[in-house]
């Protein structure tokens, strides 16, 4: 696939006098895994909010497969094939794991809310839900209320919900935040498997995750992209090392061993 999945041109976002995103230009190829990294306060979550419709751009363009989506309502963007997760787990706590995933599957298959339809009779929905739960290793916990899942499994469930909508462009905002090393390793394996054939854009602080997952990396500093390239190119860029002073700069080297 040669078409860009996402294309950002001259993208800016201001809140009053504060200019958070300052003219971002970025093309993300269809089917690639692209990581966006940067110091705290760089504007990474703001950029995700602009792409997914939570914020309206002050200026500039956001295109999904060539179609302008900047300023479009989030649910409309979702229906066009882009889905995202959040830094904080965003699940239906009192529903079962299966029910959480099934909600996304229903909409991906064109079913809306209906009090007259017996969801249990929708074989294709049940099969797709089970397939997704299998792909993220949650099938054994399908009947548990989501609130009873350990934290790492709740994050995994959110990834499953994100995938369940059928989107082919997936945005994950710090999916491994708060996980142990072993939980992070498992999450990377699950994300790799679950997003195969899709376009993945990930914001992540863990450099081991970034260098294990990403085909290309973009570095955002003070609302501007200062470098984009393959992991080995970004790791050796002096501008990037300058932006990551101290421990975070050390983390760029640790990606080799992760």
UniProtKB/TrEMBL annotation:
One of its GO terms (cellular component) is plasma membrane. Residues 238-258 are annotated as: Disordered. One of its GO terms (molecular function) is ATP binding. Keywords: ATP-binding, Nucleotide-binding, Transport. Signal peptide: none annotated. Residues 245-258 have a biased composition (Acidic residues). InterPro entries: AAA+_ATPase, ABC_AA/LPS_Transport, ABC_transporter-like_ATP-bd, BCA_ABC_TP_C, P-loop_NTPase. Residues 6-247 form the ABC transporter domain. It comes from the Bacteria. This is ABC transporter ATP-binding protein. It comes from Litorivita pollutaquae.
């Amino acid at each position: 696939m040669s078409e860009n999945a996402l294309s950002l041109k001259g993208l800016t976002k201001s809140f009053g006098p504060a200019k958070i995103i300052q003219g971002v230009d970025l093309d993300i190829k269809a089917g690639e895994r692209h990581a966006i990294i940067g110091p705290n306060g760089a504007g990474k979550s703001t950029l995700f909010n602009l792409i997914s419709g939570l914020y309206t751009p002050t200026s500039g363009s956001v295109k999904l497969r060539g179609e302008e989506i900047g300023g479009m309502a989030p649910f409309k963007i979702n229906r066009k094939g882009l889905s995202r997760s959040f830094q904080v787990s965003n699940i239906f706590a009192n529903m079962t794991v299966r029910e959480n995933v099934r909600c996304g599957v229903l909409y991906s298959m064109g079913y809306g809310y209906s009090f007259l339809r017996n969801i249990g009779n929708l074989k294709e929905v049940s099969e797709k839900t089970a397939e997704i739960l299998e792909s993220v290793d949650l099938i054994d916990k399908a009947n548990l209320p989501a609130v009873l899942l350990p934290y790492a499994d709740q994050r995994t469930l959110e990834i499953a919900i994100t995938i369940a909508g059928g989107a082919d462009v997936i945005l994950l905002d710090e999916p491994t935040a708060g996980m142990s090393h072993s939980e992070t390793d498992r999450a990377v394996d699950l994300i790799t498997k679950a997003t195969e054939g899709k376009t993945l854009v990930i914001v992540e602080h863990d450099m081991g995750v970034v260098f294990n997952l990403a085909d290309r990396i973009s570095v955002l500093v003070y609302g501007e992209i200062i470098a984009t390239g393959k992991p080995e190119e970004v790791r050796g860029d002096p501008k990037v090392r300058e932006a990551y002073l101290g421990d975070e700069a050390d983390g760029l080297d640790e990606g080799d061993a992760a």
